[in-house]
């Protein structure tokens, strides 16, 4: 079905197509009978796919990445498609409009996107209020990504911390986990916060605020694929030292290496973060390194170029506990979560294992004769 619909959607500009898709999901979001129909048609659940991490139960390892539903407009609808979790946002303390148009571009030859949206959202408090009203009808863990408001300069750092704290206070009671986004290339100077000393200051402040509030909501950090290995190691060490629950690897990349899209088209598009299939090798490499650095207990979420069961399984075997999709979902359509779930179950059967953990680790169990 989506293969027939996609040419129509791709005949529109990317932003307009996204708006059309969100509009079409309106009845599913707001009417429980529609959600039941979609859940029956798309969601493919099986206890063998469950992941238990950060004190949460994820029905499957596949989640929706931050950035798709920035204002939590369609969280209930997205959960009906078989995602094991949804990450909403990124939200900022201040409501802000998108960066100037055009700010979103398709690269069909590469199954990729370039965006320079810049955290457009209605503001953390407004989005949190929406989540609070709808949370009981979202049957999977809900993550909320928080970022720096565009108007807040990097110096002094106290202003950045105060900005993140305002967002965190707004979302901490409606989120099952919170992702601290310090790695988007589309907010000026944001990636500088990934430096170890700066990151430590921010993370410690957020954790202290969490503890004062008497909540134990897990905090994770989302890192860039463009960090050099030493910088990855440094932020992993800080995350362990202060007690973050996990790392999301990775955000979009500023690299344009190895693309099939003509160079003149890439130059015409200009700046922005690249996501999709070309990002997969680097994201996979970062996930492997992160897992080596943080050990087995911390949660690692792999993001970047996942578009089917093979890429999802490769990311899980590289060390991710959970994986997320965004661009692959746009190119493959609403059946992608179910396709990946069924594919993982088929691989379990073909490899003679009885759990996702067994499939990921490559362990085999004896089959009855």
Automatic annotation (TrEMBL):
Residues of the Dihydroorotate dehydrogenase catalytic domain: 49-348
A single Gene Ontology CC term: plasma membrane
The listed locations are: Cell membrane; Membrane
**UniProt-listed SUPFAM superfamilies:** FMN-linked oxidoreductases
Give the range the annotation lists for the signal sequence. 1-17
Binding-site positions, FMN: 90, 145, 181, 222, 250, 276, 305, 326-327
Which residues are named in the active-site annotation?
A: 184
CDD domains per the UniProt record, alphabetical: DHOD_2_like
Q: Which cofactor does it need?
A: FMN
Cofactor remark from the record: Binds 1 FMN per subunit.
Q: Does the keyword Flavoprotein apply?
A: yes
Q: What class of enzyme is it?
A: oxidoreductase
Function noted in UniProt: Catalyzes the conversion of dihydroorotate to orotate with quinone as electron acceptor.
Recorded family membership: Belongs to the dihydroorotate dehydrogenase family. Type 2 subfamily.
Record text on subunit structure and interactions: Monomer.
How is this protein named in the record?
Dihydroorotate dehydrogenase (quinone)
What's the gene? pyrD
């Amino acid at each position: 079905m989506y293969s027939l619909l996609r040419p129509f959607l791709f005949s529109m500009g990317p932003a307009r197509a996204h708006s059309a898709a969100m509009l079409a999901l309106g009845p599913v979001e707001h009417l429980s009978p529609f959600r039941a129909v979609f859940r029956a048609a798309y969601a493919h659940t099986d206890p063998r796919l469950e992941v238990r991490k950060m004190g949460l139960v994820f029905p499957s390892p596949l989640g929706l990445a931050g950035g798709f539903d920035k204002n939590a407009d369609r969280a209930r609808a997205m959960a009906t498609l078989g995602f094991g979790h949804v990450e909403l946002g990124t939200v900022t303390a201040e409501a802000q409009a998108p960066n100037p148009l055009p700010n979103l571009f398709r690269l069909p030859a590469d199954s990729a996107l370039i965006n320079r949206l810049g955290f457009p959202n209605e503001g953390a408090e407004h989005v949190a209020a929406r989540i609070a009203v709808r949370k009981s009808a979202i049957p999977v863990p809900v993550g909320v990504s928080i970022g720096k408001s565009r108007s807040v300069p990097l110096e002094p750092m106290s202003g950045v911390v105060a900005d993140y704290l305002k967002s965190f206070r707004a979302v901490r009671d409606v989120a099952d986990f919170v992702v601290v986004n310090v790695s988007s290339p589309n907010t000026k100077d944001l990636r500088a916060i990934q430096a170890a000393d700066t990151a430590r200051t921010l993370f410690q402040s957020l954790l202290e605020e969490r503890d004062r509030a008497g909540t134990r909501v897990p905090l994770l950090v989302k890192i860039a694929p463009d960090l050099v290995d030493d910088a990855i190691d440094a932020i992993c060490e800080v995350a362990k030292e202060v007690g973050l629950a996990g790392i999301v690897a990775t955000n979009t990349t500023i690299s344009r290496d190895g693309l099939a899209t003509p160079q003149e088209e890439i130059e015409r598009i200009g700046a922005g973060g690249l996501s999709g299939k070309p990002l997969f090798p680097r994201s996979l490499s970062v996930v492997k390194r992160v897992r080596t650095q943080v050990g087995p207990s911390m949660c690692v979420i792999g993001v970047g170029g996942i578009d089917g069961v093979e890429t999802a399984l490769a990311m899980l075997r590289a060390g991710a506990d959970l994986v997320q999709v965004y661009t692959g979902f746009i190119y493959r359509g609403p059946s992608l979560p179910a396709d990946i779930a069924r594919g993982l179950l088929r691989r379990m059967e073909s490899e003679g294992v009885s759990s996702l953990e067994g499939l990921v680790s490559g362990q085999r169990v004896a089959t009855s004769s």
